[in-house]
Amino acid sequence: MNPSIRKSKNPILPPIPRARDKKLLLNIEQFVKTESEKLLAVGQLDAEQQYIIYGQVFDKLIEYCTEYNSILTAIKQEYDEFIQTIKKGEIDATHLQAKLKSLTSEPTTLMYYRKRAAELENRIEIINQDSSRIEREFPKMLKQKTVKSPEVKEKTPEKEEINPSAPIPGMSIEDSLDMAALEEYQQQLDDKKQQLNASIITKYVPIQRKQELDLKLSLALQEREEAELINKKLVDRYRKKRVIVDAISSWAKSNKSISLYETLVEVIEKESELKDESAPTNVFDDLEPKKSMEAESLLEYVERFNELLVSGQYKAAAVYAAHSPRGILRNIETMERFKAVVQHKDQDPPLLLFFEAVIGSSNLARHPVNAALTLEGVKCALSNDKLELVIHWVTQQRVTFSEPLGDVIWDYGEKEPQHKVTCLALAQLIYRKCSSLRKAALSMCVQGQIQGALDYTYQSKRFLLDDYLFLLKKCPTMELINGLTKEWDGKPAPLSVGQAVLSLLCTDHKEYGFRLLENINQCGENALEQVILNDAVCTAEGWVEIAEECSNNNYRQLSERIMSVVISQDGVVEIPQKEEDAKIMEHIYM
Q1: Whole-number Å distance between alpha carbons of 266 and 247
Q2: What pLDDT is attached to residue 330?
Q3: Which residues of 550-568 are buried (b: 16+ CB within 10 A; e: fewer)?
Q4: Other residues' Cβ atoms within 10 Å of the Cβ of residue 399
């Protein structure tokens, strides 16, 4: 046997990974481990959070593997669309179940509404009876007051001794002798007295009252916990008894081939494994709760929130608002209340505490924060230099993505150059999530990811000519200009050379257009001529305008070269000067 053939059958050694690849893999493993431990510590590590973590890892791999950038990006987009479809289906199913439940509970709700109406009618009747009784007793009370009033007036001079010669406090001697000034001063004193009486009733409450309410609240919570334990035991007994009753009724309807004792023994043995879905977890769960009770509980919740906010417990009030039932306090109105609170030194702003609690407890699938509240929260965090908080909100998808949100983070990066790279990455993520194509591509170009931006634009079916011109004007670089004026993967160039140069001439970046023409002119003797002749978008008038701009900016050789090519085309004639026009027209008037 040929030794060369024998040698070829030996197993080939596996390729040795590069140090750069090893470093990337170690960083990815460490990132996944760290993020999972953080979420696990706060009890938020679920399937959705794991998907977010591995999605970020996939983005890093796409940026690293430049050769397979396009296909990996397409794969990730397909997975993202599939997962978003599944999430939307779950949300729709939840809404439909809730709607179905509300429809099935309408008869019970109507019954309780009627019962509540009857209770209110009885209460109104009692109030009317009390009102009529008070009207009958009021004249007697008025007579008693008029009889006693003279005695009081006679006793008051004996208690208070007033010196008429003493000066009146707060008045000069001249004003004390003027009757009009005295009447005005008396009216002021009466108004002040009424204000003080009203303040005593409304503004001032003894601190013992608050202590009593706190004690009542703690006792009520304790009683509620004890009642829940008793209720749980009763429900367990109810479930066991119901299983036995069902077994006896089914045995009575059967042919009684098995004795009742054996049937009950078998049911009791399987009772721990059985889960009767028809048995409610609470005896009263199958009854719709009274709407009035629900309204009272919501009112108590709001009152407790107001107490925390007025007493200065801003952090507790923020947490209370974040976990409010039905999200009644997760809105702009509550935000305005926190914004109106005076900020104390050496303390976190109350408004920031509110956004930390609300956005930190939000979830796009279950408790989303709307775009307006998200925008205000990010502005508040950035105004307090809490960029790390914004990074956490965005990467963990705690906010609603919108184009204004990306603009706010972009502007912050422009004002704070040390954070510009981070802000651009966050803005790119937000723009891509909210389908703002041109700004997503622009953020990639500003970060220097020109090839990635071109891949993104070509793969998107909604990237139009205006979007390409927007990129060219906002981020003119030679790499981007060359990419937009050349074919890409067998597809025609988005912009022609003449179109790109004319667009740049309308901005402050004319030099990039001249450099593009110079580079083309240096590629060969006929390179510029071929570009002009093959340009199906830019007309001859457009190239004449380009030539004039070249001449005005000291690119005379380039201007002459363009004009010579344009004039040589069929049907194009150079327009003569005014003196030559006179000579040409001279024979007409001869």
Answers
A1: 10
A2: 86
A3: bbeeebeebbebbbebbee
A4: 24
- Domain membership flag for residue 148: no
- What's the rounded Cα separation, in Å, for the pair 331 and 339? 13
CB 405 within 8 A of CB 371: yes
Q: Are 399 and 369 in contact (CB under 8 A)?
A: yes
Please say whether the beta carbons of 446 and 420 come within 8 A.
no
Q: Tell whether the model's pLDDT for residue 276 goes beyond 60.
A: no
Which domain, by its residues, includes 64?
23-93
Q: Dihedrals φ, ψ of 542, to 5°?
A: -65, -40
Please state, in angstroms and rounded to a whole number, the distance separating the CA atoms of residues 444 and 76. Answer: 18
- pLDDT tens, position by position, 463-496: 788 888 888 888 888 888 888 888 877 778 888 8
Q: Could you tell me how far CA 162 lies from the centroid of its own chain?
A: 69
Give bridge partners of residue 488 from the DSSP assignment.
491
Which of 372, 314, 365 has its CA nearest to residue 342? 314
The end-to-end CA distance of the chain, in Å, is: 106
Q: What are phi and psi of 491, to 5 degrees?
A: -95, 150
In a domain, 530, yes or no: yes
The burial of 273, by beta-carbon neighbours within 10 Å (0-12 exposed, 13-18 middle, 19 or more buried), is given as exposed
Q: How far apart are CA 542 and CA 364, in angstroms?
A: 51
Q: Is 172 helix (H, G, I), strand (E, B) or coil?
A: coil
Token digits for 525?
């003797």
Q: Which of 31, 61, 93 marks a domain boundary?
A: 93
Q: Is the pLDDT of residue 288 over 50?
A: no
Whether 66 maps to a domain, the answer reads yes
| Model pLDDT, residue 160 | 53
Tell me how far CA of residue 80 lies from CA of 55, 66, 433, 448, 553, in angstroms. Answer: 9, 21, 10, 25, 50
Cα separation, 368 vs 362, in Å, equals 6
DSSP category for residue 206: -
HSE of 234, CA atoms in CB hemisphere, 13 A: 9
**576 is written with which tokens?**
């003569």
For tokens 């007025």, the residue is 310
Of the listed ranges 321-330, 405-414, 420-429, the least confidently predicted one is 321-330
Helix, strand or coil, per DSSP, at residue 491: strand
Is position 34 within any domain? yes
The Cβ of residue 480 has, within 10 Å, a number of other Cβ atoms equal to 21
The total number of structural domains that make up the chain: 3
Q: Where a domain ends, among 270, 287, 304?
A: 287
Residues 248-263 have pLDDT tens digits of 888 787 777 777 777 7
Name the β-bridge partners of 367. 363
Strand partners, 428: none
Residues composing the chain: 590
Mean predicted lDDT score pLDDT of the chain? 77
Q: How many CB atoms lie within 10 A of CB 173?
A: 8
Whole-angstrom distance, CA of residue 283 vs CA of residue 93: 27
- Taking the C-alpha atoms of residue 544 and residue 559, their distance in angstroms, rounded to an integer, is 9
